[in-house]
Specification:
- With 365 residues, the chain is mainly β.
- It has one domain: YVTN repeat-like/Quinoprotein amine dehydrogenase (Methylamine Dehydrogenase, Chain H, 7 Propeller), CATH 2.130.10.
- The strands form eight sheets. Strands 3-2-1-30 form a four-stranded antiparallel β-sheet, with no helix packed on it.
- The longest helix has 4 residues.
- The two termini are 31 Å apart.
- The N terminus is likely disordered.
Length: 365
Amino acid sequence: MLISGSSGSARADRDGDVLAVVSQSGPTVSFFDAADDTLLGTLDVPAEPHELLWDPVRSVLWCSLAYTGGYYHANAGRRTDILAIDPYARRVLEVVDLFPEHAPHGLALDVRRGLLFVSVEGDGHGAEGSGRTGGVVVVDAATREVTGRIDTGAPGPHWFAADAAGRIGVAANKEAPYVSIVDLHTGAMTGKVEVPGSEGLAVSPDGARAYVAGPYASFGAADAGKDAAQAPNGVRVIDLAAETVIDVLPTAGTVLPVHLTAGGKLLAGHTRMSREPGSDIGRHEPGTLTVFDTGTGAEIGSVEVGVCPLTITSSPDGRLGYVASVVSSTVEIVDLESLQVLNTLSIPRQGEPGAHGLAYIPRTD
């Protein structure tokens, strides 16, 4: 589906750039030409891929494999591995086993030290494990060996983000009433900031602010019509030095993905749900991408995207936004100046969950 404007100025100078997209139930990673959106190829991967991260130093595309099927708290089993992928040859270089860790998901990279940080869930309780809480596994990006673990003090850390210097990291802890702040140099958790459950998050390049989506999305009837007494939907702005929430950027629906562009815009993807009168079952509607000015906190505008946006990324110049919507299994390409959808990519799938992780891979000269 091509919308007018896709060949305009926002597409200039993208020859050789590649967009990589995960399909959870594919299970695949699809590679698209970022200049004209043509499909370059598809790589079959083990179940069930979730997030992607591009390592420009080693030219490796990292992919987390969270579950054998399904979603957080509704899955068929938790995996213990991540993938190192060559995006140019479109082949898996190595399956990196993190055992005894479970359900790797969020990915962040310290480019200078060559360290990959991977959020993992806790061991569970009873027969499943010892009850150890979740954390962040540290992987040497060159040798692909685990070198450490940072406890985050919550059972379900999911998304994870770090500043550009690889100094400070933040873990979103789903239903736990706080996010965890970690010092990536000392390998220790330094604090907790109270939030009403958390989803996606982003950290400013200078490490001064974190932007955290909340509250936790359960997708029950309450999400189709939230009680006024519940915490409002929106993005919590955290002062990381003071370890406190200093603002809430409101949204009309439950927010999952949050992303910061190179131009300083904050992108938030929120779901929209409805339900019939008297029904306890919520129904997903097309979602919305909302754009905020991080300087003022003001909403710049919004645009309708696919059903249940789950991951957002942007082009290196900050002019294009990419929104992966897992229920419709689409990626909307948005001109962030005009807030128009330029194109919609359909991502193949074999089951219910579709498009999820995204990575923009600039050409190498």
